[in-house]
Amino acid sequence: MNDNNVYAFNDEEKSIRINRSDLPTPWINYLSNGRLHAFVSQAGGGMAWWKSPITYRMTHYRYQNVPMDGPGFYTYVREKDGTTWSPTFRPCETPLDDWYAEHHAGWSKFVGTKNGVTATLKLFCAMDTDALCYDLEIKNDSGEEKELDLFAYADLAQLEWTTDLFYGYYIQSQVTTFYDEDMDAVIYRYQHTPQPFVEDVPLIWMAADRKMDSWSGDREKFLGPYRWEQNPIGVEKGHCGNDTIECGHPCTAGQVSVTVKPGETERVVFTLGVAPGGLIKHKETMANIKQDLETFRSLEKIDGQFQALENWWSNHLSKFDCEIPNKDIQRQINIWSPIQTVHNGRYSRSTSWHAPGYRGFGYRDTATDMVGVAYRDPKWATDMCLYLLSQQFEDGHALHTCYPEDGPAMSRGASKHADDHLWMPMVVYAILSETGDYSLLEKDVPWLSEEDNWTTYGSATVWEHLMRGVDFTENNLGEKGFPLTFDGDWNDIILRFSRAGKGESIFCGQQYVIILRQMIEIGKAAGKPQKDLDRLQDCLSRMVKNLEDHAWDGEYWRRGYTDEGDIVGTKEAEYGKIFINPQSWSVWAGVGTEEQNNSGMDNAIKYTATDFGLRLVHPGFKTYPHDPDPFTGYNPGCAENGAVFCQANGWVIIALSKLGRAEDAWKIFGDMIPHTALNNIGLERYEAEPYAYVSNIIGPENKRHGWANVTQVTGTAAWMDLVGTQYLLGVRPGLRGLEIDPCIPADWKSYSVTREYRGRTYIISVANPDGVVKGVKSVTVNGVEIEGNIIDPATVSGGEVVVEVVMGE
Ligand code: GLC
C-alpha cells in the first residue's frame, strides 16, 4: 500500500486495487478480445467500440466535458425501499459502506457494499464472441432476506462517430431499437450506410443470462427529462419502461429482480454484444445473436470465456519474467509495461478517456509499438509490419496516419514526414531477431496509391520496400546533406523550422544511420545482392561523415537546420539551445567519439534533468505575446516544448547503458516508473495512473509542472519495455542470437530472467560478484561455457536452456 492508501498493487494477481473513486482523473483499464474493445475507469466510466472507434462506436463518452468520466458501464442495485446504489459508486454516488475497484490485465472488478449486501461487478470481453459481460454477483450478509432490482445500462452511440457529432440530429431518424421476445433481448439497428463496409454494420444487443423483468431501448424515456445516469427514472420506478424507438436516442437497459436469502449469493450476467451483418443479412444476424446467447445464458460458458481471456494474457505475460532486487521496477517490467504495450499496439495514440478515438494508427507510432511487441508476439508484429508496409508509397515515404478498419476518408493523414518510413527497418530487425526467419523479406506487399491514399496496386518484396525507403531519404537530402524534415520527424512540432520545405533534421540523419546499419546486417545475413549492400554502405558512410563534420556544436550534438539554414539546437540560440534526442541517438548510431557522446549526454543531463526524467529541450520556446515561436503556440514546459517527453527518455537510457553509465540510466529509469513518479510528485499534482506511462510530464518552466499529461496512449510503454528488458537487464535478441549485455546498479549481486526465444525457454541467472555495472566475464549454456556473450540458438537443444552469466571486468 502506498502512503495515502489510495491504491495497492497485487503482483501475484498482476492487478491493482484502487480505494478511491474520486481520483483527480479517470484511471482506466482496457477490456478487449482483439475485436471488441472498451476502456473503463475505476468509477465505471468508459466507452465500447467494435473494431474501430470511428466507424463502429457502440457507446457514448463525454469528451472534454463535465461531469467528467461518463457515461459508462453502469449497473444499479435498487433495494425494496427505493435506495439505489452502484457497485462502481458512480453514477449513483450513494454513499457506500465499503468500496474498491481492481484493474487486471484485460478485465476490471468493482466491489461495493451497502446495508449488508456486497455487489461485485466483473467487466470483461468474452474471448470468442464479441460481447462485453457485466457479470454481477450479489452477496447478502445482512441477516435478512433481500429483494433487489438489478439494472444494467449502456448509452448507445450512432456508430459512425463523426456523423454522430456533426449530423446526429438527422441520423437519429435512421436508428431503431426493438425487443425480440423470443430471445428476450433489446436490439439496436443503425441504418445509416455511407461507411465503407456496409455488410459489416453490426446489430448491438443486450440481454441477461435469464429472463429480464423489464428493459428499455429509449434513452430519453429510461433516464427521464432533465435527469441523467445518476438517477434514471426507470431505476427509480423499479421498471425500465419497455420502450423502443424508431427515431431518437437509443440506449439499452435491462432489469432482473432477485431475492437473496441471508448468507446466499446470486449471480446475474448482463451482456452487451455485437453481431455483424445486421443491415444486409438481417435474418441471419438475428440467428447469430440467438446462437451467441447460448453462451451468455450459461454461467459455465461465461466462465469459459473469461478463462480464455485470462489464458491469452497469461501466455502473453509469460514470455519474459525477471526477478530483480527492486520490486517497483520488477513489477513495471514484468506486468505493467507489457500490458500497456499491448494496449498501444491496439489503440496507438487514438483512444482513451481523453483521446477521443479519431487518429487511427500513427505510422511511426505503430511501428515503434511493434518493436516493443515483437519479442512477445512476433506474429502480431509481422502482421502489422506487412500492413504498415502496404501504406508506403512507391517513392518510399509512408502515409502518416492510417487505420485498417476505416474507410478512405477517415483517419488517413497524408502529410509527409522525414522519419515514418525509417522506422520499418527497425520493426523488421526486431521480428527477424526474434524469429530468425528471413522469408519475411521475400513477402510481397502492395504500394499505396498517391491518388487516393487508400487503394493499393502492384507489389514489391519487404526488402524492396525497405530499400525504397532508403531511396526516399537519399532523394530528399537537404543542402547540408541531412534528411529534409518536411512535416516533421519524430518530433511533431519540429516542422516549425521547415515550413518552406528546406529545414533539415540531424536527428533523422542519426536514425538513418541506425537503420542503415541494421539493414546491412539483415542484408548480409539474408544473402541480399552485393549491389544493395554496397549502396547501403555508401549511404551509411556519407551520413556518418556528414554527422561528424556538421552536427557537432562544440559540447553536444545539434538538432537540425531551419529553412533559412540557421542551426537548431545550438549554444548560440536563445531558445532550444539543446535537444536531448540528438545526444542519445548519436550514441545509439555509433557516431562520434566516446568523449563527444559522453559530453552530449552530460550536457543533456546538466540542462534538462528533473526528478522525473529529462526534458526534451532547453530552454522551451516562448510563445505569444512574446513570439520567437509564432508557429506552434505551445507554452514552455508543455509537451515537445520542454516537458519531460517520456518516450525520449527511453532513448536516453539506451544511450547511457551503451556508454556503461548505469547510475544515470537507472536513476532515470527508476524515477520514471509511473508509481514512483506519482509518489515523488504527489497524486494531486501528477494525477494519472501509477501503472501506465504518460506521453509527457509538464516541465518546470510551466506552473503546472509535474502534471502527467496524455496518459496511456504513448510510445513510452514500448520503449521502456524494450529498454528495461534488452538494455538494462541486457537480454537482447539479435540476428545472431540472444546477446547477454547487462547494465545494472553496482550493488546488485544477482538477478534472473526467464525468457522465450525461438521456441525455447531460457532460464538465465546473472551473478555480479565483483560489483561491476557492465561487462560479462563468462556465459555458460546448459553447463558449457561459450565464447563471447551471444547465445547462438542453433547450438542449443531442449525446451529449457539454462544460462549462467558471470559479470566482471
Ligand atoms: C506524439 C505523437 C508521436 C510523436 C510524438 C513526439 O506522441 O503521437 O507521433 O512522435 O508525439 O512529437
UniProtKB/TrEMBL annotation:
<dbReference type="InterPro" id="IPR008928">
    <property type="entry name" value="6-hairpin_glycosidase_sf"/>
</dbReference>
<dbReference type="InterPro" id="IPR052047">
    <property type="entry name" value="GH94_Enzymes"/>
</dbReference>
<feature type="domain" description="Glycosyl hydrolase 94 supersandwich">
    <location>
        <begin position="17"/>
        <end position="275"/>
    </location>
</feature>
<dbReference type="InterPro" id="IPR037018">
    <property type="entry name" value="GH65_N"/>
</dbReference>
<dbReference type="InterPro" id="IPR012341">
    <property type="entry name" value="6hp_glycosidase-like_sf"/>
</dbReference>
<feature type="domain" description="Glycosyl hydrolase 94 catalytic">
    <location>
        <begin position="312"/>
        <end position="730"/>
    </location>
</feature>
<dbReference type="InterPro" id="IPR010383">
    <property type="entry name" value="Glyco_hydrolase_94_b-supersand"/>
</dbReference>
<dbReference type="InterPro" id="IPR033432">
    <property type="entry name" value="GH94_catalytic"/>
</dbReference>
<dbReference type="Pfam" id="PF06165">
    <property type="entry name" value="GH94_b-supersand"/>
</dbReference>
<keyword id="KW-0328">Glycosyltransferase</keyword>
<dbReference type="InterPro" id="IPR011013">
    <property type="entry name" value="Gal_mutarotase_sf_dom"/>
</dbReference>
<dbReference type="Pfam" id="PF17167">
    <property type="entry name" value="Glyco_hydro_94"/>
</dbReference>
<protein>
    <recommendedName>
        <fullName>Cellobiose phosphorylase</fullName>
    </recommendedName>
</protein>
<keyword id="KW-0808">Transferase</keyword>
